[in-house]
Amino acid sequence: MTDSSTTPLDPDDLGALAEAGTATVTTQLFKLGLRNTFLAGLRTYGRPTRRMVGEAFTLRYIPAREDIDVLDVFDDYDHPQRLAVESVGPGQVLVVDSRNEGRAASAGHILLTRLAARHAAGFVTDGTLRDIAGIDELPMPVYATGPAAMTNLALHHAVDMQLPIGCAGVAVYPGDVLLGDADGVVCVPRHLVAVIANPAREQEELEAFLQQRVAGGAPLRGTYPPDEATLRAYRAFTRPSAAVS
Ligand SMILES: O=C([O-])CC(=O)C(=O)O
Ligand SMILES: [Mg+2]
């Protein structure tokens, strides 16, 4: 296993991923052989002004048991769910393994309001959320499968944090980078962030050019993927002085 948890992250690389978006980033990871990086089936909530990008802070739920998971356990402020919310650092994304179990919520408006106040970059669960109307007003991006009113204790037992988890069928290691946009969330293994940042930026710029050509009436043949003539036109468009020499 690659222990990349200490690989430094360059803010410029994170910016490049955020600009590129999840579609381009999943393609870049696919080019490296990684096919299972997209957390499928999640919806986006909140009113963020920017795309979600940040390192994963993981929290794991296992199934609740009636004799252990009673409402009184929340009297303990050090309950792992509460502790996780109060431990996430600025710019980190709290990502919860809820086992795709949506019949009880992974969190609610108060916990996610606190997370936003701690300047977290976002919240991701493969389960559901309660108080969804309030959550949808938060300035922080939130991803979940939908709403459910029942509190998490009914079916979830928060057991540990900052260990590798599965979320929506994808392995998420603490410190991996989660990128979210309107398509959903992709998990970028931390050591690959620097590898794909520039290629992702280049793919995004080229595709913006191709998109304009197709919108202007160009057929797919010769344009998408671009043939030599289209690539020459692209280079002339991006570097006019280099193209004439
Ligand atoms: O009990 C819960 O699941 C948490 C909750 O409602 C909230 O954070 O507002
Ligand atoms: Mg609530």
Automatic annotation (TrEMBL):
One of its GO terms (molecular function) is oxaloacetate decarboxylase activity. Gene3D superfamilies: Ribonuclease E inhibitor RraA/RraA-like. Its cofactor is Mg(2+); a divalent metal cation. Its EC number is 4.1.1.112, 4.1.3.17. It comes from the Bacteria. SUPFAM superfamilies: RraA-like. Mg(2+) binds at D131. It is an enzyme of class 4 (lyase). Belongs to the class II aldolase/RraA-like family. Homotrimer. This is Putative 4-hydroxy-4-methyl-2-oxoglutarate aldolase. It comes from Lentzea guizhouensis.
